[in-house]
Design goal:
The complex is a heterodimer of chains A (139) and B (220).
Chain A (H helix, E strand, L loop, with lengths): L2 H12 L3 H15 L8 H10 L8 H9 L7 E8 L5 E3 L2 H10 L16 E7 L1 H12 L1
Antiparallel strand pairs in A: 1-2, 1-3
Chain B lengths: L4 E2 H8 L8 H5 L4 H21 L9 H14 L3 E3 L2 E2 L3 E2 L1 E4 L6 E8 L3 H14 L9 E8 L4 H13 L7 E4 L7 E6 L8 E9 L7 H5 L7
Parallel strand pairs in B: 6-7, 7-10
Antiparallel strand pairs in B: 2-5, 3-4, 5-6, 8-9, 9-10
Classes of the chains: A alpha+beta (139), B alpha+beta (220).
Chain lengths: 139, 220
C-alpha cells in the first residue's frame, strides 16, 4: 500500500473529522522521526494541540483505537512494568490483558491491586507503516 | 518525548470513547472465542446506537445501513468490508489484527420473511467462512416496521420449517430479548455452525403533534 492510499482509507472512515487530521499528524510525525520507539498518549494530545484540534478531550483515544486496529494498523501498543528497583519488564499482549482484567502481576502471577499504577503504556510504529513510509521516501 | 501514562490512567480515559473500555482486550485477543465474544459486544453497542437514533436511518437502504455498521466497526479496531468475495459477495466480513480470525454476516431489511430467508440461504449455501472449523456467522435484520419482536418470532418459526440439519435454538446471552442463536450443520461442511440473528429495530413514527404534521412521516 502507498501512503496516499492509506490516507484515503483513513479518510473513508472519519471523513472531515478531526480524527483524520490527527491520524495524518501522527503519520507525519513517524515519517519525520522513523526511529521513534516510545510515543506516549500525551504526545498525541500535544500533536492535537499543535494542530488546533482541541475541541474534543477524547480525540486521541478514538484515533489510537483506530490506528492500533486492523483497518489501518499504523501503531502498536507497548506496556512496561517498572518496579521500585527501576527494573523494566515489557508485557506481552496476554499479560497486558490479564493485568487490565484481573490485576494479575505478569511475573509473580498474583493479584496486585496497584499494578496498573506501575505499568506504563506507550505506542510505536508498526512494520506496516514503516514499509509504507519507506516506499514513500523512495519516490 | 513527553510524560508517561499509567495503564490505570490510560484504561480510564479509553473507557470514555465508544468501544474503548474493551480496547486492550480486543487488540490482545488470542483465541477465536475471545475475538467473537468481543465482536458480539461491539455489534451490540453499534446496534444500540442505531436503535437510539432511528430517525437518522430512515432514508438509508440495506447498503447504507451496513456501511454505517462497517464504519463503526473500523473505528473500534476491526477491519470490516462490504462485498468481500468468498463464494459470493458477502454483505459484511470482519477481521481482527491477528491473522486467521474472521466473521461473516448477511444483512437484510425485513421487508418480508422471504427476503430474510433468502439472506440466510446466501449466508449458508453461497458464502464461505475463512475457516469452516471456526464457523460462527451472523444475520443482521434491520426492521423498519412495527413489532420487531413479533417479526423475529415469525423468522424463528420460518427457520423451523427449513429442514436445516440438526437445527437447535439457543438464547443470546447478551441480547436475550432481541437476538437469538441457531446451530445447524450446513450440507457443504457437516460442521455445526452457529448463527447469531440480531434484530436492529429502526421503526420511527412519532405520534405527537409535530410528528403527525411532519411530511417525512406521512405514509409510513
Amino acid at each position: 500500500m502507498r501512503k496516499e492510499e492509506l490516507l484515503r482509507q483513513i479518510y473513508a472512515v472519519w471523513r472531515e473529522g478531526d480524527e483524520f487530521s490527527l491520524s495524518v499528524a501522527i503519520i507525519e510525525l513517524i515519517q519525520k522521526f522513523p526511529s521513534v520507539r516510545h510515543m506516549p498518549m500525551t504526545r498525541f494530545q500535544q500533536l492535537a494541540r499543535e494542530n488546533s484540534l482541541t475541541k474534543d478531550p477524547y480525540l486521541s483515544q478514538r484515533v489510537v483505537q483506530y490506528l492500533c486496529g486492523a483497518d489501518s494498523p499504523v501503531l502498536n501498543i507497548g506496556a512496561e512494568l517498572i518496579e521500585e528497583d527501576d527494573e523494566v519488564y515489557q508485557l506481552k499482549a496476554d499479560e497486558l490483558r490479564l493485568a487490565v482484567n484481573h490485576k494479575l502481576h505478569p511475573l509473580t502471577g498474583e493479584i496486585d491491586e496497584t499494578l496498573a499504577d506501575r505499568i506504563f503504556v506507550y505506542f510505536y510504529p508498526s512494520e506496516f507503516i514503516k514499509d509504507i513510509l519507506a516506499k514513500d521516501a523512495e519516490k | 518525548m513527553s510524560e508517561r501514562q499509567t495503564l490505570g490512567e490510560f484504561h480510564a480515559a479509553m473507557a470514555s470513547v465508544p468501544g474503548g473500555a474493551r480496547f486492550i482486550e480486543r487488540i490482545s485477543a488470542s483465541s477465536f472465542e475471545q475475538f467473537i465474544s468481543l465482536l458480539h459486544e461491539d455489534i451490540n453497542d453499534i446496534v444500540r446506537e442505531m436503535e437510539a437514533n432511528p430517525d437518522h436511518h430512515q432514508n438509508s437502504d440495506e447498503d447504507g445501513l451496513t456501511y454505517f455498521v462497517e464504519a463503526l466497526l473500523k473505528q473500534r479496531s476491526y477491519r470490516a468490508s462490504k462485498g468481500a468475495r468468498s463464494g459470493g459477495s458477502i454483505d459484511l466480513t470482519v477481521t481482527g489484527r491477528l491473522e486467521g480470525f474472521s466473521w461473516i454476516a448477511e444483512a437484510k431489511i425485513f421487508t418480508s420473511i422471504a427476503a430474510v430467508r433468502e439472506g440466510f440461504l446466501q449466508l449458508h449455501t453461497r458464502y464461505r467462512c475463512a475457516d469452516i472449523e471456526k464457523a460462527k456467522v451472523g444475520m443482521l435484520v434491520y426492521i423498519k416496521r412495527e413489532h420487531p419482536r413479533r417479526l423475529m418470532d415469525e423468522w424463528r418459526g420460518e427457520l423451523k420449517k427449513m429442514d436445516l440439519i440438526d437445527l437447535s435454538f439457543l438464547p443470546c446471552p447478551t441480547r436475550p430479548q432481541t437476538a437469538f442463536l441457531t446451530i445447524h450443520s450446513p450440507t457443504h461442511s457437516d460442521i455445526a455452525t452457529e448463527t447469531r440473528h440480531v434484530s436492529v429495530s429502526l421503526y420511527h413514527k412519532p405520534l405527537d403533534k409535530s410528528g403527525r404534521r411532519a411530511k417525512k412521516y406521512k405514509g409510513r
